[in-house]
Amino acid sequence: MVFTSHVFLFYFLPLVLALYYACPFRARTALIAVSSYVFYGWANPIWAVIMFFGSSVDYFCGIGLLKLSKLPDVDGLPPVIDRAIPRTRKMKALLTVSIVTNLGLLAVFKYTGFVAENLNLLARTLGFGPDAVPIMHIVLPVGISFYVFKAMSYAIDVYRGDARPMRRFTDYLCFEAFFPDLVAGPIIRYAALEEQMRVRRHTLDKFARGVAFFAFGMAKKILVANPMGHIADTAFASGALHVGDAWFGLVGYAFQIYFDFSGYSDMAVGLALMMGFVLIQNFDSPYRSQSITEFWRRWHISLSTWLRDYLYIPLGGNRLGEGRTYVNLMTVMLLGGLWHGASWNFVLWGAIHGGMLAFERAQGKDSIYRRLPRPLRIAVTFFVVCLSWVFFRAKTLGQALVYMKSLFGLAVVTPAAHVPAGVMYTRLHASVFVLAALLVWGAPNTWTFTSRLTAARAVGALGLLALSIFVMWTQSANPFLYFQF
Question: Would residue 340 show up in a list of annotated catalytic residues for this protein?
Fold first, then answer.
């Protein structure tokens, strides 16, 4: 089930909200848990079974950590396992079981085919035959990368003493399967949601802001991202292109992925607010960044902070010297690329960003890059980000290389290359392209705009929601881009 469908908008969401506010507070987490499993298993019930298995392991590992700590409850609540308490081998074993289970699920469903393909390539290179390793075609459960990272944050936070474990199984299922952020984030860490599971406020202002968030997110997806996706799909499916067409298609994709992904995050934040939960900001006008370092403070903030706190810092961060810092940055971004997809294209995408992060750090405060005028810094950063998007969007490495050649006028262009231009440069697409640019570089983001929700802004949000629903009926199925991760 997707947010931009009539089943969700006219049946699932109204029913869940009605039941939610009709239930006593203690029953609401159980209702959210059940609703979330219905939401997730709507397309494929097996996916819900897989998530339930992982959630069960994580929950019992948390309970095991609590019992091994031998700490009494405090004011009727499970205690936080104080950092001063020595972590025993059994406690470390439970943490390991949780992490291995989650990474194992991710590896089996996401990377089995990728590993087999590369082993077969190596086998052919060494002369062992073409089919040394059988390739299993396993359907990737939607959003598995997101909920696996959520689950890992639970076990790690409880083990570190950053949050208290959960006693009620339904509470954990509510956290893990929370349908607003389940399939495409933000990646909400357990420590940030633990207290809200027990205590949260429900106000009319919060609900109204949630509706506004949802409306603006849907408008981003339906009215901007989808038309930009048509431009990008046409360009990337066309082979060699003229320079102008290639850049138009690439910037169109940059707009598509931003409005698609930030639109989903806005809708997730809005749905959570309607139920009293406050999620984190996942996007902060990233295309206004003046460096790649700043870009990663503004783009997919929940992922970048997760990688920082659970991977970069444990690897040593910047505490072990400059050389090790660069290695850590590259390692984190390469793994971040693989997190997005089992493909060498994503590895290269991560390598570009990791290399730029290391380069910027090596330059220091007096670098030429930092001395450029602000508009040029923004332009250079956007240029680098767009080049990296080529590897993110292209289906194969070969397609990415052809597209890169087109961007710099090095591709062999045939007469057929004129055909895509007639599809991309329609009045609608050109108008939405200009609108997207104005929104990216000239308008406040959703968090800023809804921080003071006046009557005029509320009416505008409802108008956009109505328009988006109307246009939704004219479009074919339009899942969010990050569903594939």
Answer: yes
